[in-house]
Amino acid sequence: MRGLVREQGVQISMDAVAARAGCSKQTLYARYGSKQALLLQVLSDDVRDKAAQLAGQPDAETLRASLVGFARDHLARLSAPGTIGTARLVTAQACQFPDDVRSLYEPVIAALQERIAAWLQQAMRRGLLRHDDPHYAAELLLGMIVGLDFDRQRFMVPHRDTTQAQAQWAEFAVDGFLRAFAPPVSRS
To answer: Given this structure, which CATH class describes domain 36-180?
Structure first.
């Protein structure tokens, strides 16, 4: 189904999904209820996969490694061949189908930010990061990780498309984030 989303965007055809899945449209509607619900399920699975590196309780020994792992995985997903094509397609469809495109923001982008914010909030409560608004921190972290790569891809100019380049940037971005949110030094 992800392949069809890449090909058809928000105007995914239930006939095409049924043909690719080898089932009837009625089976799809019985399972998902609507085309929108099917699309949301596919994209929500992506959000869950993206935030997998940030599962569990953050601790001092694994904080940086967890963030770097998430950053590397996020950059790799953004550089995957189908991702930028899907983003271009959905952006192109936004004018024609604004409600369909807008309805994807909360369960996809906002949900990813929320999962990261919850994890960062745990780290803040444990004294691993300075206390601040976890949602702002999550948005800042995502922005630092992505940098200009998504824009570079969209405009078809060179971007960090190798594992080594992504790893270097992931570490640089995470280290910058950790410096910005370092807990205050206690003075005794």
So the answer is: mainly alpha
**Cα torsion through 33, 38, 44, 50, rounded to 10:** 150
What's the predicted TM-score (pTM) here? 0.79
Quick: pLDDT tens for 120-143: 999 999 999 999 999 999 999 999
The domains of the chain are located at 36-180
Nearest to 181 by CA among 123, 115, 114, 118: 123
**Buried b / exposed e along 151-179 (16+ C-beta atoms within 10 A):** eebeeeeebbbeeeebbebbeebbeebbe
State the first-to-last Cα distance of the chain, in angstroms, to the nearest integer: 58
- What lies within 8 Å, CB to CB, of 169 at 6+ separation is 71, 75, 145, 147, 149, 160
